[in-house]
Amino acid sequence: xxxxxxxxxxxxxxxxxxxxxxxxxxxxxxxxxxxxxxxxxxxxxxxxxxxxxxxxxxxxxxxxxxxxxxxxxxxxxxxxxxxxxxxxxxxxxxxxxxxxxxxxxxxxxxxxxxxxxxxxxxxxxxxxxxxxxxxxxxxxxxxxxxxxxxxxxxxxxxxxxxxxxxxxxxxxxxxxxxxxxxxxxxxxxxxxxxxxxxxxxxxxxxxxxxxxxxxxxxxxxxxxxxxxxxxxxxxxxxxxxxxxxxxxxxxxxxxxxxxxxxxxxxx
Length: 267
Ligand code: UDP
Description:
The chain crosses the membrane at residues 230-247. A 9-stranded mixed beta sheet has the order 4-3-5-2-1-6-10-11-9, with helices on both faces. The chain has a single domain (2-210, 239-265), classed as Acetylglutamate kinase-like (Carbamate kinase), CATH 3.40.1160.10. It has helices at residues 16-20, 29-43, 61-68, 72-96, 118-126, 144-154, 188-193, 201-208, 213-218, 221-229, 251-257; strands at 9-14, 48-53, 101-105, 114-115, 130-134, 159-164, 169-170, 182-183, 185-186, 240-245, 263-265. The protein is of the alpha/beta class. The two termini are 28 Å apart. Uridine-5'-diphosphate is lined by residues 15-17, 54-56, 60-62, 75-76, 79-80, 82-83, 136-137, 139-140, 142-145, 147. Residues 15-17, 54-56, 60-62, 75-76, 79-80, 82-83, 136-137, 139-140, 142-145, 147 line the site of uridine-5'-diphosphate.
C-alpha cells in the first residue's frame, strides 16, 4: 500500500565511487545488481524511483583539468560522458531482472538514450518505470549532486537520497577519527555554517531554497513576496536529503521507503 510510505517519489543519487565497490575495475556488477534488486522491491510497492548517477569512478573533470592541462569545460564533458556509461550499465542490469528503465541524457545522444524531457520523465515514473538521469546537468562546472537536486525539484520528488560509502554525515571524518559522531538530523543552516561535506554548496543551496523559476523570472521581488504572503505561490520549499550507506544490504530499500537510515537533512 503506497500510502503507508513516507515518500511517493524519490530521487536516488548514486555516486560513481559507490558503483566501483571494492573492485579494481570501474564498475562492480555486484553493486549494480544490489542497487537493482533493492530498487525492484520498492517499485513493486508503488514508490516511484528516479536515479541520478555520478561518473567519478571513471572520470572526474576537476582532477583531470588540474593535472593534464585540459581546459575545465572539455574535462567536464568527458566526466558527463562517463555518467552515461554508468547509466547504461545500471539500466542494463535493472532490465536484466525485469525492471522497466529509461535513461535520459542532459545532452542529446539519441541513438543511445532519450533526451531529458521533464514531462516525459514524469510520465515514465507514473507508469512505474525507473528513470535514470545521465550526463549531469549537461553543463560543465557542475556536479551530479547538483543534477540530483535539480532533477528532484523538477520532477517534484520529495527527497534526494544520497547513497554513499559512509553511514551518514559525521561531525568529523570517521575514517580518521574513531570518535567521530554520526549526526542523525541536520538543518541546511547547520550544514552550511559547520561546513559539513554533504554535497557541494551549489547542490545544497539548490536544495535549501528552490525558487519556482517561472515565477521568479517574470516577477519583481516584491511581487513574489506579496504573492507568497497571499499563499499563491511557495517562495521556497525545502528538499529533504538523506545521506546513507549503500554498501549495507537493505539500506537503499529502507531509505526509499522512508525508514530511518543515515543522516536526514531538511528545513
Ligand atoms: N559533470 C559536469 N556537469 C554536471 C555533472 C557532472 O561537468 O552537471 C562532470 C564533472 O567533470 C564531474 C564528472 O562529470 O567530475 C562526474 O560527476 P561527479 O563528479 O559529480 O560524479 P560522482 O562524484 O557522483 O561520482
